[in-house]
Amino acid sequence: MKQRSHLLLLATLVSASAWGQEVTVNSTSMVQYWKEEVPGFDKKTFTPVTQYLDVDATKLGSDGLSMHLYGWGMADLSDSSLLSGKKSDGYLTYGYLDYRFAQANAEIKGGRFLVNQGVAIEQVDGISARTDLAGGFTISVFGGRPVRYRTANAAAQSDYEFQNDFIFGSRLSTRVLSFGEVGLSFLQDGTKPAKDLPIPSQIDYTRKQVGLDFRLSPVSSVDLSGRTVYDMASRPEAITNQDKTPSRVAEHDYTATVKLASNLSVSGNFTERNFQAYFAGTNLPSLFNQVERDAHRAYEGRVTWSPVTAFQVVTDYRHTHRDTYGDADRFGLEGRWTVSELKLQTGLGYHKVNADDARSTSAILPGPPLPGAQAATYGLTHAEVRGWVMYTGSLISGSLDGIFQNFKDSANPQLNGRGTIYQLVGSLGLQSTSNLKFSADVSYGSDPLYFKELRGLLRVEYRFGTAGKGGSK
Amino acid sequence: MIRKTLLLFLAIGFGLGLMTACGLLSPEPSFAPTHPPQETSAGRPLCSDCHGAETIKGSLKTFASFDHTPAFVKDHRYLANQSSGTCAACHAQSFCSDCHAGKTMMNPSVKLGNRPDRETPHRGNYLAVHRMDGKMDPTSCYKCHGRANNDKCIACHK
What we know:
Radius of gyration of chain A: 25 Å
Number of helices of chain B: 7
Strand content of chain B: under 5%
Distance between the termini of chain B: 59 Å
Number of helices of chain A: 5
Oligomer: heterodimer
Structural class of chain A: mainly beta
Largest sheet of chain A: 22 strands, antiparallel, barrel
Largest sheet of chain B: none
């Protein structure tokens, strides 16, 4: 969307909020501070100021009409913290008018909004509508221009914008009372495939996908949820004619949860993602390579036990396999304890990752290793401990959060010789009035990029609201 | 003349279609857009603390399905995808945008550094270790950075 259109939409929406009988404004202002010293480069000081603004106005003349707005802006008070070198930036995450009908959960939205229905998880400048139908059916549709992001270079950007001219999606579902829901959805993002470009390209920024999603609960103690996404687009021949035909299934994602008792549940998950179909439509093909024949599969099991309401403990195991890498197992335990009387919450977790060694770049190059070259393989196995505590009083709040990772193979070139990585974040807050809160965070840590890292952040949160809806928890 | 006839047929067709569609609409009243203000205790809320075995009108799912247990937090993608209206009864949409945003300035864990109870991604300096996780499973990066929010990725992954 052009900057002028942004401003026009913003002005319309903000002025519309004046008509609202219930208006909620959430504002969060943050100032960060850190210094950077890299040998051979100038010392730098960063002081970015970031402002988040969230406005919800309901009952705009009619009970069903509402306006929703959320975005941010930032400016650097000292050196630029942005990779572009600019010293300011901003973004409208969403800004739309919404009309909810009194019957059938019918709803119409117009403006910039986020869509999360079936196969579509999108940001759109356009309109959407949904309604419940008789017999337990539900239908939803959306259409407009996809919100586009920057790609790596100008030539790619012109192809990307040419192809992503229109986005359309729909979902039809059926619900059975207390039993579950099954949905069928379709998405088309862009109407001009790569073969229609003036100079045909192997990188296709368009998507055409169909998806099946379901959630079934045949008895109250069993929950089966999942979805499959299928890639329907025709791909350039140079890609599909390779020796291994890639799967058209972009994703399988299924989870089963069984409540064995009121305080004990077991769940299992299976995920499979085939890179060519899953990465379709990416605007960063250099990283999410659509030409890859690779696939990823994961199996996960989890047991949740809550001996008392205030205490929950989760133990989990996850096995992953990537065709071009190998296997990894992650397992561990974490607990969470809430002491309401003391307004205190705390959590502690331990996880271990046993992973196959990764091949270094020198191992992939032909010929014997060069003198002084890094090892042919390096280990990714590591352990992680995280602990946190949070106090939320009516006047004072505070938290402490620490994460510690220890890598088994400190010769891993990506660790820059740091086998141990940690970060500790402390925060102290003051609720000066019911609407206004000040807080300050300080973080200290060590990692492969910064051997010692100390950062500060000041936060001012202001909330003005006549509506009951929150969202802070 | 032909155009007028065609437009007349189209108008009649549209009108009949609209009347049929209205007849197909569910006669049920809409689900309440906002949960009444409620004092909840510290920690994650459990809908079944107050609600019984009945179903939520808007989604035809039980209230217990939305209990904010560790499993729910981990798997909330399924219910949010099918029944976002139920989420919206208690959460403003900006709550979701703390993590699910097209383009964001700050890592959610930094933005919410005072809320360690929320399961925000990328605790610690994740930039330093993302290459190792990416080797094991790049598809986990794709969900948030595949088509958006990858301004910083472009700096190295050109």
